[in-house]
Amino acid sequence: MTNFDTPPLGADGLPDNPERRDFLEKGTTALGASTLAAACWPYIASMNPSRDVQAKAVTQVDLTGLRAGEVRTAEWQGKPVFVFRRTDEQIADIRTSRSKIDPAADYERVQKPELLVVVGICTHLGCIPNRKGEGWMCPCHGSLYDNSGRVKRGPAPANLEVPPHHFVDEKKIIIGQV
Amino acid sequence: MSNRAINWVDERFPLTKFVKHELTEYPTPRNLTYWWNFGFLAGFVLMLQIVTGIFLAMHYKADAAEAFNSVQHIMRDVNYGWLIRYLHSTGASAFFAVIFIHMARTLYYGSYRAPRELMWWSGQVLLIMLMATAFMGYLLPWGQMSYWGAQVITSLFGATPFIGDELVIWLRGDFAVGDATLTRFFALHYLFPFLICFVVVLHLVALHTVKSSNPSGITLRDKDNIPFHPYFTIKDLFGLGVFLMVFCGFVFFAPNFFIEAENNIPADPMVTPAHIVPEWYFLPFYAILRAIPDKLGGVIAMAMSILIFAAMPYLDRCKVPGGARYRPIYRAMFYLFVVDVFVLGYVGAKPPGGMMTVVGEVATFIYFAIFALLPFTSLWENHLLVHSEKLPPEAMRLIQEEAEDRQRHAISTAEEGA
Question: How close is the nearest chain B Cα to the Cα of A142, in Å?
């Protein structure tokens, strides 16, 4: 029979092995807490993109009929991607300039000088910039981008993202795959 | 019979005791003005939103392909669907209007000061929960403004150092706001009001511990308190009548006043509207976000503009009771703050750039400067008013009486202790 009133006491009248009891108490608490934390994980992870959303990760863009100076917008991962065929003057202009906010040379951002591929999402708060003059302007907070998708004026902190892409042939790009 | 029934319950549950303690014998300062009506009104609007929301949920479809059409279905086909939806959409605006006035009253009369700090902070938690609920609810009609508002606000979390991008994708469940985002926003929009109810209970338990503040700012003696019921139930109900006249005016005669025309276009992830604005109740905070020309800085400033209210019990170091009533400097700062918030709201509604940017930056500076100056001006006021006895005689008498009461209380507790 267990007696709940008096814990097992040693000869000195103190509980047996107090360090052992202390260890057991702390160990059980730690184990319980980490189990609880681990049990939260599936719920947190369930909010990340599901398989079908992840499957949207690759998009093919057909460039047929895209003339110099025109932008074609493709959908990739639910986001717009601008494919911009630049004119020779535009290329010449953009080669010499740099962005003060996020410096990057134009040749680092394109695979072919005449074709710029950027994600059309403002790096500030995610609006879609509209084509304006020689570049893009975000309607939400007024950020300006040049013909290389580089930020010319804030509040945007960075250049338009260049998505991983490769050219299948002259008329076709795969976005989402290097 | 009814007495026996009540006795039967009272033996098992403290019903009569509760009603006495919280209503019929709950001491309420008799000098409360109609500015003390807005807590009750907030409770009313919360109930209205829950009831209308539950009935809307019976007809709404939280699916990116169907959400927009299901709202049209509610408006055109569902019996009284138009009424329930307009009550809910107008109710959101009414909720913020009532809460902002409730907060302004607390600031004007200094009701945030000891011993009511926990009321102020639980109220602050409620404000943030209300903002989250309203924001998520605004996505549900799946119009262009809904969509781009959600896109912008979820992007704010992208400013988090190191994990920003992953955090935004996790919040959206997609690489951009999409079907997964809509469905989870609906689930959470349904959940949050019940969490709000729970915090409201905490807010009320704290209230019934410290009791209502009053325009004099002094803890009243027993003779100056009257029971909450029937005196203030009737006063609150009268205020409700006035509120409902204004509220129903909007619901029946200008239901689209608070709805952006752009939101009648279904969400299009490929096109951002030329000019996007948040709902009116977010405009001042949105203007502060835009005033800082740096992404992380803007997000921090916007968060601070709401969180800084929590510091009020510490920033205000003046001992003069009654808040702004007997404090000319604080009163001037209060009115400047109110005007500043309206200016920020105006700037937030306008397209960025040009003159508006400058005005927004100045107004943001003033917004924070008022909080920063308060510790100094309030100490100065203390010195100016209390020590030179420039307060009106009745206010001095009240301070005196309260000091005596406190002393007597201290002596009696000391005796009990002995």
Answer: 6
Are residue B135 and residue B241 in the same domain, yes or no?
yes
Would you say residue B141 lies in a domain? Answer: yes
Are residues A152 and A159 in contact, defined by beta-carbon separation less than 8 angstroms? no
**B235 is annotated as an active-site residue:** yes
The answer to whether residues B384 and B297 belong to one domain is yes
The answer to whether A47 contacts chain B (CB < 8 Å) is yes
Do B352 and A125 make contact, defined as CB atoms within 8 angstroms? no
> How far is CA B389 from its chain centroid?
36
Interface contact A92, partner B, CB < 8 A: no
User: Quick one: tokens of A35?
Assistant: 């189990």
Residue B236 bears catalytic tag: yes
* Four-point Cα dihedral B309, B312, B314, B320, nearest 10: 180
- Enter the tokens of residue B401: 């009486």
In this structure, are B244 and B149 located in the same domain? yes
Cβ partners under 8 Å of residue B163, min gap 6: none
| HEC letters along A39-69 | HHHHHHHHCCCCHHHHHHHCEEEECCCCCCC
Same domain? For B236 and B306 the reply is no
CATH of the domain at A150: 2.102.10.10
Can you list the alpha helix ranges (DSSP code H) found in B58-178?
67-76, 81-108, 117-139, 144-156, 164-172
So what's the ipTM on this one? 0.77
Clarify whether residues A67 and A149 are in a common domain: yes
Residue A24 and residue A60 in one domain: no
For chain B, the domain total comes to: 2
Residue type, B159: A
Q: What is the pLDDT of residues A127-161, one digit of tens each?
A: 888 888 888 888 888 788 888 888 887 778 888 88
C-alpha A153: how far from chain center: 22
B230 and B316, same domain (yes or no): no
Q: What is the 3-state secondary structure (H, E, C) of A80-108?
A: EEEEEECCHHHHHHHHHCCCCCCCCCHHH
Residues 6 or more apart whose CB falls under 8 angstroms from that of A57 comprise: A77, A176
CB contacts, 8 Å: A79 with chain B: 175-176, 269
Q: Which of A88-92, A116-120, B399-403, B406-410 has the highest mean pLDDT?
A: A116-120
Name the residue range of residue A114's domain. 53-175
A176 touches chain B (CB under 8 A): no
DSSP conformational letter for B192: H
Range of the domain at B72: 26-219+226-259
Q: Using DSSP bridges, classify how beta strands A130-131 and A59-62 pair: parallel, antiparallel or unpaired.
A: unpaired
Chain mean pLDDT for chain B: 91
Active site residue B212: yes
B163 to chain A: which residues are within 8 Å by CB? none
Give me the CATH number covering residue B203.
Answer: 1.20.810.10
Which tens digit of pLDDT belongs to each residue from B314-344?
999 888 877 888 888 999 999 999 999 999 9
Contacts of B157 (CB under 8 A, 6+ apart): B164, B167, B168, B171
Cβ–Cβ contact A74 with B under 8 A? no
